[in-house]
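Hello,

Our lab assistant flagged a job as stuck in the queue for most of the afternoon. It eventually completed. Since we weren't sure the result was trustworthy after the delay, we are filing this so someone can double-check. Below is the sequence as submitted and the structure that was eventually returned. Let us know if re-running is recommended.
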Amino acid sequence: METMADRGTMARTLVVLVALVVAMGSGRAWATAPITSTQVGEMPTTGGMRPGPVGLTPPTTAFTRGVLPSAIRIDKAEVDAEVETVEIVDGVMQNPTGPWVVSWYKETARLGEDDNTVMAGHVDYWDVGPAVFYNLKDLAQGDEIQVTGEDGTVYTYQVEWIQTYSVAELTTEQIQEIVGPTDAPALTLITCGGEFDYATGEYLSRMVVRAERTG
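-- returned structure --
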């Protein structure tokens, strides 16, 4: 059974990899050197295979053990999905396993803990089109997000801010702002955004939604 000491050790020993982009399916990751291709355009409705993670190991702090998330509902963004548990491996946040599932990273906070719970989902998916977080862009400050724990408890959050980050320009400080620890219970959702580079099959940005727990 994993202990808090295990989580703390993992957080201290894994190196924070600044601005990595995860490749779906292939298991590869590319360093975020500036992309020189000029073949960019609006977000495609099919073919975009990149998940939300930016790729790093967020530090964790000591807290009371919380509840594993099992489902997420966001009426404003038409999200009603199961939540799976995935890991951060060698500093890389692993991909959601499908177009309609949302991934929770087990190295981040559980529900009910006074820290940052980080999740990611696809914006679109090959041969599928719009995926689970496609309408995340429609959220605004104050919108409600509900996450259900495995014990049936519903945790309610309210959107605090939404921001899009250029992958090539992500700084260490911005990465810590996204997935680092928080002083109060928070929920961070990550997906792709911005232009899509058809030459590399990569989105050039990540959209991040930060919400605070209200109930």
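-- support follow-up --
The delay was a queue issue, not a problem with the job. The result is valid. The radius of gyration is 16 Å. The domain at 4-25+48-58+68-213 is CATH 2.40.260.10 (Sortase; Chain: A;).
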